């Protein structure tokens, strides 16, 4: 299991396009992927869940990945933050 903090560096924050990219990555693999912000944890396999977090540039969020392909998932996800 990978449990780490990630700072959002995208100037426009984490809007629909990067959220959609994250959902595609999360659904492509077997691992479970979760995002934590302000005491809320949501599945990264749902765009509605991700958008409900309203993540902004400069914020630090939690990233949890658990599964047999977690390292590959992490590499792909870090590219979009």
Automatic annotation (TrEMBL):
Its main location: cytoplasm. It is found in: Cytoplasm. The keyword Repeat does not apply. Keywords: Cytoplasm, Phosphotransferase system. Residues 1-81 form the HPr domain. CDD domains: PTS-HPr_like. It holds the Pfam family PTS-HPr. GO terms for biological process: phosphoenolpyruvate-dependent sugar phosphotransferase system. InterPro entries: HPr, HPr-like, HPr-like_sf. This is Catabolite repression HPr-like protein/phosphocarrier protein.
């Amino acid at each position: 299991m990978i449990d780490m903090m990630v700072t959002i560096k995208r100037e426009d924050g984490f809007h629909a396009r990067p959220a959609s990219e994250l959902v595609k990555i999360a659904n492509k693999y077997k691992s479970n992927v979760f995002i934590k912000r302000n005491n809320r944890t949501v599945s990264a396999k749902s765009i509605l869940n991700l958008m409900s977090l309203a993540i902004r540039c400069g914020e630090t969020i939690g990233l949890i990945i658990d599964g047999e392909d977690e390292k590959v998932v992490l590499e792909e996800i870090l590219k979009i933050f």
